[in-house]
Design brief:
alpha+beta, homodimer, globular, about 35% helix, about 325 residues, 10 helices, four-stranded mixed sheet, 13 strands, seven-stranded mixed sheet
Chain lengths: ~325, ~325
């Protein structure tokens, strides 16, 4: 691939990201993109992935970096019950990144963009010392679901899987120390894939509209995100330990055994699965949601083990990690 | 100010950026922000300012960094003829940045947000090795103006001033070498202020709707941006040297004299003034637009000096600078 210059790269991205989606009136290449108004409210969010903070290139290819940064951003739309409409991609590209590297990175973004039906309509290219991918996502929902609507008496629902991504990252870290070239066992391979290639639960989020009273996407671990949801809804959330345990996948149980980690601990504290944690009345629970607890009066989030309540610690701090 | 943590910082930003603008249904603090649909098309853009690439903290305070990065992003909305509706701010914060530093940075963003009537409704906080501010802006326009609509026979218009920001940066660079503590002359102080505190020309952009056939904001110098506009409209743009000279401000002429630089050269190649370059029929020129040339058939952008045409070089490359 020829030497990198902005003109060539913009042409590559224009070709790669071009979309004929009806909502895109004007795409890449102008001062700004133009989207048809539609009649539904707009939902917008931005998410950054920074090298050395959010990803480690020893464990992740550049296509994975592009793919997962995009899915992580779209997950915020899923948590609002929104349909993705468009995305903007701001890349900070260090000089060590070759044209072939950028091709891989943007191929990952393009794949995630296609899978989520969320065309990339614009962006920004800049030089910098460290690679970062900042993705803005725009969606629409007839009735976006906030974090603040949980009410005492409702159920606590889990949509998607917990713990796999944390087990996958743990497996990569330990095998890079112990057995760098060994093939992982199938259960761990599944966990590693969950970490490298998370999927935003868009269809599942859409199913929650009109049913769930509050939703948050589990990016920092269900413990931390349950504390957030409880705080923003001014309620207490109680996770039933046995119900949570019943949701854990075979791959997590087997992976955790091999890693000598507690699967429940991985599920509670592991982030980056992009599951959805929601609340809603029992009668409205959609099939994809599994009940893992309940909403009551009070504050904070707890795990119930029989009659014992153990408080969950929140306060995951993105500025410390 | 107490030690920095995410919770405290989000609370600060929530208080600082809070808005009661009617289009904001849900602001900072949820998975995503929610905006009322409205009936007009949406215009969206993202712009990044990276330390050491887009700004140099020897010449710019952190409040300036916040202010100008926001105005630069909003300038893309001005160039579409759009009204600002909302912004998202993604900050990458290095560890050397203190809580007081972040207070200054975000105070600059808040000031620009208020001046442009563009509430910050969400964002992202991340650690990283170098400071960057990535601003997504969303606006609405009944009829957004693209770069591609210029037609032969139309006039070429300039809205705003050229060259001041480049003169200001040049003054800061040379005085930091020669006379670090000397007060700049009033003309140079005006140029420095233009570089530190640019203003997106929103009202002027709005005036161009229904009048201009094409608009671009001059972020990389009018020479480079005229080449882009010509290419995207598939026309030739000719800048009349004497007409361009007639638009130069007294501050630029005096500043350039003191810097021993050509004011015309500063105007042609200097970026970051965020003026607007537009095309349109003579009869529709708004009062704020000054005619500096014309559109004809062919390709490329040229400066005409009497009968001589000198080609302008485009190709400003953000990945080289």
């Amino acid at each position: 691939m020829a030497a990198l210059n902005e003109r060539r790269l913009v042409a590559l991205l224009d070709a790669r990201f071009r979309s004929d989606a009806p909502q895109v009136s004007l795409g890449i290449g102008d001062d700004a993109a133009v989207l048809a108004a539609g009649s539904e409210p707009w939902v917008c969010s931005v998410d950054a992935s920074v090298q050395g903070v959010h990803f480690d290139l020893r464990f992740l290819g550049l296509e994975d970096v592009g793919y997962r940064s995009f899915q992580a951003a779209v997950s915020d739309l899923a948590a609002m019950g929104a349909r993705p409409r468009a995305a903007l991609s701001a890349l900070v590209l260090p000089r060590w990144l070759s044209a072939a590297d950028i091709d891989r990175l943007t191929a990952g973004q393009a794949k995630a963009s296609q899978e989520t039906d969320c065309p990339i309509v614009g962006g920004n290219l800049a030089r910098g010392g460290e690679l970062s991918v900042t993705t803005t996502v725009l969606g629409q929902a007839e009735r976006p679901i906030p974090r603040s609507g949980a009410r005492p008496g409702e159920q606590l629902w889990l949509v998607g899987e917990l713990g796999l991504a944390a087990a996958g990252l743990s497996a990569l870290r330990s095998s890079s120390r112990a057995h760098p070239s060994e093939e992982p066992a199938p259960a761990l391979a599944r966990c590693i894939q969950a970490w490298r290639r998370p999927r935003a639960l868009i269809a599942e989020g859409r199913e929650l509209v009109g049913r769930a009273s509050a939703v948050i996407d589990v990016s920092d671990g269900v413990a931390a995100d349950a504390v957030r949801l409880a705080e923003q809804s001014r309620v207490r959330l109680v996770i039933d330990r046995e119900r949570l345990r019943a949701t854990l996948s075979g791959a997590l149980l087997e992976g955790a055994r091999r890693l000598r980690r507690s699967p429940l601990q991985l599920a509670l504290s592991g982030g980056e699965d992009y599951a959805l944690l929601a609340t809603g009345p029992r009668a409205l629970r959609p099939p994809s949601a599994r009940t893992i607890g309940f909403v009551t009066t009070g504050s904070g989030a707890f795990v119930a083990h029989g009659p014992r309540l153990r408080p969950l610690r929140g306060g995951f701090d993105h500025l410390r990690h």
